[in-house]
Structure prediction request, 1002 residues.
Amino acid sequence: MNGNAHPLRARRLRLLTQDEAIVLMRTDAHVCKSEGLGPRARVLVRAGAREVIATLYQIENAWLLAGEVGLSEAAWRRLGLNAGDVVEVQNAPTVESLADVRRRIYGGRLDARAFGAIITDIVAGRYADIHLATFVAACSASPLDLEEITHLTGTMADAGDRLSWDTPVVSDKHCVGGLPGNRTTPIVVAIAASCGLIMPKTSSRAITSPSGTADAMETLAPIDLDVTAMRRVVEAEGACIAWGGAMRLSPADDVLIRVERALEIDTEGQLIASVLSKKIAAGATHVVLDLPVGPTAKVRTDLAADKLTAHISAVAASFGLKTRVLRTDGAQPVGRGIGPALEARDVLAVLQGEPQAPQELRARALAIAAAVLEMAAAAPEGRGAALAEETLASGRAWVKFQRICAAQGGMREPPVAPLTRPLAAAHSGILTHINNRKLSRLAKLAGAPDDKAAGVELLARLGDYVTAGAPVVIVHAETPGELDYALAFAAANMDMFEIEV
Amino acid sequence: MNGNAHPLRARRLRLLTQDEAIVLMRTDAHVCKSEGLGPRARVLVRAGAREVIATLYQIENAWLLAGEVGLSEAAWRRLGLNAGDVVEVQNAPTVESLADVRRRIYGGRLDARAFGAIITDIVAGRYADIHLATFVAACSASPLDLEEITHLTGTMADAGDRLSWDTPVVSDKHCVGGLPGNRTTPIVVAIAASCGLIMPKTSSRAITSPSGTADAMETLAPIDLDVTAMRRVVEAEGACIAWGGAMRLSPADDVLIRVERALEIDTEGQLIASVLSKKIAAGATHVVLDLPVGPTAKVRTDLAADKLTAHISAVAASFGLKTRVLRTDGAQPVGRGIGPALEARDVLAVLQGEPQAPQELRARALAIAAAVLEMAAAAPEGRGAALAEETLASGRAWVKFQRICAAQGGMREPPVAPLTRPLAAAHSGILTHINNRKLSRLAKLAGAPDDKAAGVELLARLGDYVTAGAPVVIVHAETPGELDYALAFAAANMDMFEIEV
Prediction:
């Protein structure tokens, strides 16, 4: 007995903490006394060969026995436990890489070794929230220089799985910074694949938004593909639209993005490393970046866009990754629908060439597809737009999209919400401004993204003349309760639409 | 119904989280759906007029009903709840002062208004750990200038209770940075009060160390005095040695210190604001700062000590607070005992003039007392040492100490540990180095500070010749289990004593 190991029976608490490892023990647990553990101590929990560092909270009720340790789902999963397993708990060792974080706070620069150690510890879950926040702040107070951004990008890409495709050109696209309803991906992928490009696309689910591309795509086909399934689909159809979460591409990014969001700190260096590390890990060689610029978008001025474009291209180049940045209008939502199924319907309308399809979604998708085709030399410079337009208009993209869905497990109909309620304009006039943040909140209150059919359908665009009493948006919900909450919020927040008389 | 308030029955979880407000709800709780709340969301919990901002975790077991919200002790206390009370939960409003924190991260300077807003939010519990860590990092990346340190100190002092004493000279002392067993305070206070000084001393309990001054003093007399009791004691005896935690002096400091410790970030600006805000809030006018300098102490070089001394004096002066900094040897533990009762016995030995009393503790206490007496003009410059020595040697300090203890509620005998075990030197030679960190850990494993009698008794000092097999330290414990753990740790860590042959 070395005085450091203390066997306890593991109890699954079904405690949801996102990716945070939390353990609960009673204050009279022997290990708490012997190891001098108090609330918020960082502890090392070991189960056989697996271990996780967790934050300890103590509890003084009958939920746990003194010989038990309760684990959050994140901790339970990482340890791969089964009911009743025995684990050992002790004081967590000091996290060496925090010395590098402190060094950067005090003005030092970090090299590849330092970033490697930090990212390894972050992926291993050794950083508490305060450590993550300190790292984010340390990389923001004195901005990362290009060399540091490159090291960070490389170590983040190396920290997870790496996909590789034995073909010289692997196309990809990415939208920097959310814009509600901006679901160009399925359309772009379908066009690119129709033209023979290889485009193994991974997308993410919504974290704070009403819908991610993965959420919308899931209403059309299975997206939860492992690497083997993904390869099969890409070999058969040249492309896929899968959920990246099943893959572990740049896992550090998922951890850091959560903290950056909570702190509302989003520096250029972290943005570049976040985007490029995922693309590098996915094995992409040619990436088109959709960069919405606008007053409420992530990038707000042309100057900021110029700088970001220059730096992102430079870092990408050092990994042999070719990028092209497309600036797009970031002023208003792109599609008509906001919410998984509603956004999927917009996508279908465009692919099927319906006259009422949202034209700005169609135009954006074509512009991005044109750039993708030109980068991959499927079309000469300046001719990508024509090829993209022809591929979409001819219906070939729609056929290809259905084949991709079939290969991913079968195409399906997006669900329709049982409850809808129009919201009318308070007075007549020109719609001059839409508060995207409040509009997203409205869609979330209605149930999106968990309720696939829920969300908001936007009937008017900026510059449209709306008539008093005529509907501006339609709220879609699956339950009366959620419809009520959405409507109550809307009633108090109709200023999300500015209508000038 | 405004779509924002959701009544739930409050459940007391007896969940210990230090000062962190945490609430648990089931994922199927209506409010989680309607407010779009997920794990780690920041929520506002309101009970009548009281409110607290908490971090939400979700749980999917039978511990809670869908209509209930479970609260950590910190949240329960702040809301002043009773079993079964109804509370309302909703999304937390954005914390405006975080914009100031971000501004500083990006290189901006903060004024009194900004620090005031930040400290107010911190004391109100509106900052999550990641926010606190970001603030600490923001104040470290580009160091606080003197003006900022002054603003921070002032706002921290204003954020809690303020004591005032209607006398022109109120003496105080403080030791910067822990040194095990450095219990000069009770001796200094007794000497100062014997010489007619007013010294309403508040001390803290151990947070990470084996014993704080308050823990040691508590084995000799009650220390849990409220402001009224404290005034009564000071009016009667001119001084007291009370636990500061019973008052709310600079409460922001307690929150920030925890995060700084966890991050091992301890910048000069934060140190100065921490120390001075407490002294200003306590109503002190003349403060002697004991500044241990040494390789393992908080301040490691004379250069650093010079800078700290200059800045601390400048900031103190702007609040009309006079300071004198005494540099002391930070190389080794000060007393013989480490642990509440053992340290109290050292104090008694010095006060009672026992020949075997630890001489370096006596010498340090006299040096600090001399400075306190000179600052208060109780002795001319250069004559404080003689007066302190005479006051201690004559036994007057010992009499005064007993009177103070009696006034605080009655003097008592420090407890004696039922179990002791000597640890022998592995070989003979000169004791050249002691690892204070490991020695403190040993005392904590033995049970200190919770077990008042537990700890470590140090028999040899640096430079002493120790003989193989002869005891170097004696471990004191109250339970066999803790003795075992301490001995197991010691067996694996005898390198905490470096003995040169």
